[in-house]
Amino acid sequence: MGMGDLDEAANRMSIIEDQVTEYTNRLDSAFALVSSSFFVGEIGDGLGTVVINGAGDLVEVNFAPERVCETRAQELSEKLMAALASARAEKFERLRGDLKRAAREIIF
Question: GO molecular function: any one (predicted)?
C-alpha cells in the first residue's frame, strides 16, 4: 500500500467520522424534539382529550362534563386508556419518522 493509498484511506476515515458525528447530532435533535413535545389523544365519543409529554407520561385529562355524566365508569376507563395509547402511538410515530429521516441522510 503506497502513501497515496494511505492518504486516501485517512481521508475516507475522516469523512466517515464526520458523517457519524452528523448522524449522532441528528439523532440527539430528534430525541430532544420529541422529548419537549406534547401529544394529544381524543377520548372516544367526544368525551374529551388526554395529553402526554415527550416521555409518554400523562400530564393532563380534559373531560367534556356533559358527555362524561352519560357514560358508564367502565366504558369511560376503556376510552381513556385507548386515548392514552393513541397519544403514545403518535409520539412513537413522530420519533420513528425523525430517526428514519436522520438515517436516510447518512451515506457510508
Answer: DNA binding
> What is the DSSP track for 21-86?
HHHHHHHHHHHHHHHT-EEEEEEGGGTEEEEEETTS-EEEEEE-HHHHTTS-HHHHHHHHHHHHHH
* Range 3-104 has CATH code 3.30.40.10: no
Number of Cβ atoms within 10 Å of the Cβ of 63: 16
pTM of the model: 0.72
Amino acid occupying residue 64: A
* pLDDT tens, position by position, 5-15: 888 988 999 98
Q: What pLDDT does residue 107 have?
A: 60
